[in-house]
Structures are given as C-alpha cells and as structure tokens.
Amino acid sequence: MNGSCRYLEGPVPCETCASPVQDLRPRWTVLDSLLCGAIAGAIAKTVIAPLDRTKIIFQVSSNRFSAKEAFRLIYCSYMKDGLLSLWRGNSATMMRVMPYAAIQFCSHDQYKELLGGYYGYQGKALPPFQRFLAGSLAGTTAAMLTYPLDMVRARMAVTAREMYSNIMHVFVRISQEEGVRTLYRGFTPTIMGVIPYAGITFFTYETLKKLHTEKTKRPQPYPLERLAFGACAGLIGQSASYPLDVVRRRMQTAGVTGSSYATILGTMRGIVAQEGVMRGLYKGLSMNWIKGPIAVGISLTTFDVTHSSLLKLHRMGYFAH
C-alpha cells in the first residue's frame, strides 16, 4: 500500500487504504476542563481577594461607599490585623471558587457542544443567542452546585475572627442557630443575577475572540489580548447584574448584621427606602469596575492558556487518557 494513513477524528476510513483507523490526536476531556477551570478561578480570586472583601463589607452595610472610604478600610484592616487579614475568608472563597469555576468552564464546553449539535453548528462558532445561552446555563449549573460555599464565604468576610474560627465552624453554627435552609438564603437572586452575568460574560468574550480571528486571521489571540477581552466581558456582565449581587449579599448576611431581609422585593424596597437606588443597589459598583475586569480577564485568560499548555503536554506524551 502506498502512502501513509492520515489520522482523522474517530475511527474513520483512511483516505489511502480505506481501512478504519483511530484518531491519535490528544482529546480534550471533562477532567481537563475541570482542572483548567479550577486553576483559573483560584488565581483570579486570590489576586482580587482584598478588593472583593472590601466590596462585600460595604454591600452589607448602610455606610456610604466611596473609593476613599474603601481604601481607608483596606488600610485600617492592614494596620489593625496585619496583611493576611485582607485575605480573610479566602480559604472559603477557594473552597467555593475552585469547584465553581471548574464546573462553570467545564459545563460551558459541554453546553457549547450540545447546543452546537442541536442547532447544527457542530465544530463551528455558535450564533449570538446560543453563545449567551451556553454561558447562562454554565453559570447556573455552577451556582446551583456550590451555593452554600458562597454563603459561608460571605459570612466569613463580614465577621470578626472570633465569631467563626474556620469554614466548618460557619457551617455548624449556621445549621444549629439559623437552620440548614439558611445556607440557601439569597439563592434566588443569585440565580437571577448569574443568568445575565454569565451569559453576557461568556458571550462577550467568545464574540470578541471570534471578531479578532476574522480581523487578524490568527486562530488564537495573544495572552494580553485575551486579558483585554476578558476585562471587557467582566465589566459588561457585572454591571448588568450588580443590583442582584447587592440583594444576594444582604440576604446572605442578614443573620449577623441584625437585618430582616427575607425576600428579593422586600430587600430591594428596604435598600432603596434607606439608601436610595444608586447609593444602595449600586453601592460598590465602582470597586467592581476595578476588580471585576481584572478577575474575569485573569480567569478567562488563565483557562485558555492552561488549556493550550495541557494540550501541548498531551501531544508530548506526558499524559495518557
């Protein structure tokens, strides 16, 4: 037989010998997606942890937010409790964000594949609505599976170390003193916020990459370009869903702030009545415009870069599926 077999996807006939051959190219697995997503989420959240903690503290209080007051809070925390106090609650954040990001990125890949097959775009870029839908479904899936960890993280961020000594202590005290259902307080506004946030974020990022490829004819953007695309995606996505993020935090921390937030509308009415629309529902948004694009940009870029690096390692034979 003349020539050599060209390995295609799946057990397909060779073009020259007509015999079935198996694709020997490395395959991207669910485990790979989970690993890359966990790494991306951990790095991004650790970088912006002090800003995230500061934002939560302002979100759950009636104090007026300003950049000056935010950085004063960071400075006072540093002077009083030391540098590591700025990362208080970050262990709970890691316990939440690593599985959250892993599930979100992994499910996003799966939903893109499912929607592509269903709508006839297998192996091609999805149309705009399907891109938005894949992102929304991925965010919703991740939020549903990791929500109690988000509640614990919020509690640790706004309380003194004496109240909750570690993550398990938060779970035990909330369950004993407030009931297990409290672990899901704020779940509805979370899902209502995640749908537009994740949908818009992934949609924007995927769209910018697609437009970049069409304009430059390069298959993949450079890391700094990915970072810029991710920052734009995070800025738009978080701005669209921010009021629901404030409502979620108020409901999550009601048990330790002395507030009685029980429903979404009731929480919104209370915030607007006491603090106004812009100073209440959008409190800390300017801080989010700093930390949000940084976090999303780092997360999406890290996922893509880790993804590419892992594929190279597969090709070099370091891993076998």
From TrEMBL:
Transmembrane segments: none annotated. Keywords: Membrane, Mitochondrion, Mitochondrion inner membrane, Repeat, Transmembrane, Transmembrane helix, Transport. Gene3D superfamilies: Mitochondrial carrier domain. It is found in: Mitochondrion inner membrane. It comes from the Eukaryota. GO terms for cellular component: mitochondrial inner membrane. Its main location: mitochondrion. The keyword Metal-binding does not apply. SUPFAM superfamilies: Mitochondrial carrier. It is a multi-pass membrane protein. It catalyses: AMP(in) + ADP(out) = AMP(out) + ADP(in); ADP(out) + CoA(in) = ADP(in) + CoA(out); adenosine 3',5'-bisphosphate(in) + ADP(out) = adenosine 3',5'-bisphosphate(out) + ADP(in); dADP(in) + ADP(out) = dADP(out) + ADP(in). PROSITE patterns: SOLCAR. GO terms for biological process: transmembrane transport. The keyword Transmembrane applies. Mitochondrial carrier mediating the transport of coenzyme A (CoA) in mitochondria in exchange for intramitochondrial (deoxy)adenine nucleotides and adenosine 3',5'-diphosphate. Belongs to the mitochondrial carrier (TC 2.A.29) family. This is Mitochondrial coenzyme A transporter SLC25A42. It comes from Cyclopterus lumpus (Lumpsucker).
